[in-house]
Amino acid sequence: MNNGTAPLVVAGASGSGKSALLAEASRRALGEARAVVSTRFIGVTPESADIRQLLRSVSAEIAHAYSQDATTTATDIADLIEEFQT
Q1: If exposure means fewest CB atoms within 10 Å of the residue's CB, which of 12, 15, 33, 67 is most exposed?
Q2: 42/61 Cα distance (integer angstroms)
Q3: Domain ranges in the chain?
Q4: Using H for helix, E for strand and C for coil, what is the string for 17-51?
Q5: Does 33 or 12 have the greater pLDDT score?
Q6: Residue 80 burial by CB count (10 A; 0-12/13-18/19+): exposed, middle or buried?
Q7: In this prediction, what percent of the chain has a pLDDT beyond 90?
Q8: pLDDT tens per residue, range 37-66
């Protein structure tokens, strides 16, 4: 177990129930008073398979959740990766 600050990553074979599991986990987490839930289903849309666009989207969503200026979200892939590693 961790302290709840690490991302949840689920991997498995196609059709194994990953999306259903994460949809239910997201639904339950939304009921938590302090939870910030950012749900992405990779590969569902062409945009979700673009790592730069995915990181920008998640970064902007997190900024918005904490009342920060999302317009300052990095656009360069190296800068985005660095944001998520710190």
Answers
A1: 33
A2: 16
A3: 18-85
A4: CHHHHHHHHHHHHHCCCCCCCCCCCCCCCCHHHCH
A5: 12
A6: buried
A7: 8
A8: 888 877 777 777 888 888 888 888 888 888
